[in-house]
Amino acid sequence: MVSKDLPQAHCHREGKVDTLAKGYLTPAEITEYTVTVGLQKTQRQYLEVLIMAILAGMYIAMGGLAASTAAHAITNQGLAKLVAGAVFPIGLMFIIINGGDLFTGNCLIFVAVLDRKVTIRDFFGNLAIVFLGNLIGAVLLAWLEASGGMFRISNGLLGASTIATAVAKVNMSFGQAFILGVMCNLFVCAGVWMTYGATDVAGKLLAAFFSILAFVISSSEHIVANMYYIPAGIFAKSNPLFVEMAGVDSAHLANLTWKGFFVKNGIPVTLGNILGGMILGAMYQVIYRRLRHD
User: Fold this and answer.
1) Which residues pair with 24 in a beta bridge?
2) Distance from C-alpha of 181 to C-alpha of 266, rounded to nearest angstrom
3) 93 and 67 in contact (C-beta within 8 Å)?
4) Integer distance in angstroms from the first to the last C-alpha of the chain?
5) Do residues 60 and 138 make contact, with C-beta atoms less than 8 angstroms apart?
6) CA 195, CA 207: separation in Å to the nearest integer?
7) Residues 6 or more apart whose Cβ sits within 8 Å of residue 177
8) Which residues have C-beta within 8 Å of that of residue 275, sequence separation ≥ 6?
9) With bands split at pLDDT 50, 70 and 90, how would you rate the model's confidence at 290?
10) Do 216 and 81 touch, CB atoms closer than 8 A?
11) To 10 degrees, the CA torsion angle through 43, 33, 137, 141?
12) Global pTM?
């Protein structure tokens, strides 16, 4: 996502309340704004998109790293999810305020495709570049974490927890990973939609916080988060102590490889994330750009 100033069309409209005065956009206005943002996103230089995507991958990984560190020693699974969910949103907050291109959020460009402002080729071209940039940024953070010895926190418990998390992700069935990917981007894109609707920083941060808190607690699958979690697990796997502490089945551990990452998790979760974002965006486009014009 790239933070942009609100289009002037939203600021003053005859017969309508000033958007900045009321502090938010209506759903119809958010839809119009999403079309504008989608067009802007696909008109930039490829290098700019790539660098912004690398930043976003780093930011999401930073959220994942902080969340894992905060929750790794909590034995109550519900509480661990709540703590992780309370910390992880910092990644999206960085992107919303600092700027960045996030694969899952950019799935909302599909609204501009349905509005015939962006071609389907440009839509998927943007997603491809952003996917690559997010991957570079997230893996870089995972490598820095491993190189900095951070997995040794709590006498290696963080490393063991990282392995266990990654192993669980690469041992899902294709169908399960796909469905959890769809569910994830319903949460994330609904949250991004709300950040578009807020006209001040506080509103955008609150929208990002609660939507991502809900996503993390739901245990659904986010491809960019997994670009951090699974490579981090692969790096941690190189330490036999962490592997022993993780106590995972050897057959399941065997899937924790780069091939396992892309085939077992990356493909189905990516496809699910795309579909989830397209579904949510399409529903609003149909309501506010086809069925009615507020």
Assistant:
1) 198
2) 10
3) no
4) 25
5) yes
6) 6
7) 169, 221, 264, 265, 268, 269, 272
8) 181, 182, 185
9) confident
10) yes
11) 170
12) 0.91
Looking at the predicted structure, is the pLDDT value of residue 215 above 80?
yes
- Give 80-138 pLDDT, tens digit per residue: 999 999 999 999 999 999 999 999 999 999 999 999 999 999 999 999 999 999 999 99
- Find the Cα–Cα–Cα–Cα dihedral 1, 138, 119, 294, rounded to 10°: -30
> Tens digits of per-residue pLDDT, 6-60?
443 333 343 344 555 567 899 999 999 999 999 999 999 999 999 999 999 999 9
- Could you tell me which residues are beta bridge partners of residue 198? 24
Q: Is 156 left (phi over 0), alpha (psi -120 to 50) or beta?
A: left
Q: What residue has token string 């289009």? A: 7
CB-based burial label for 121 (10 Å; 0-12, 13-18, 19+): exposed
Nearest to 207 by CA among 68, 110, 78, 97: 97
Grouping H, G, I as helix, E, B as strand and the rest as coil, residue 24 is strand
Determine the distance from the C-alpha atom of residue 136 to the mean position of all C-alpha atoms in its chain, rounded to a whole number: 15
Q: Which residue type is seen at 237? A: K
Domains of the chain: residue spans and CATH: 24-291 (1.20.1080.10)
Average pLDDT of 264-274? Answer: 98
User: Would you state the structure tokens that stand for residue 70, as one six-digit string?
Assistant: 């905060």
DSSP per-residue codes, 165-229: HHHHHTTS-HHHHHHHHHHHHHHHHHHHHHHHHB-SHHHHHHHHHHHHHHHHHHT---HHHHHHH
- C-beta separation of 137 from 61 below 8 A: yes
Contact by Cβ (8 Å): 105, 195: no
pLDDT, residue 204, reads 96
Residue 167 has what pLDDT? 98
Q: Is 102 left (phi over 0), alpha (psi -120 to 50) or beta?
A: beta
Say how many residues make up the chain.
294
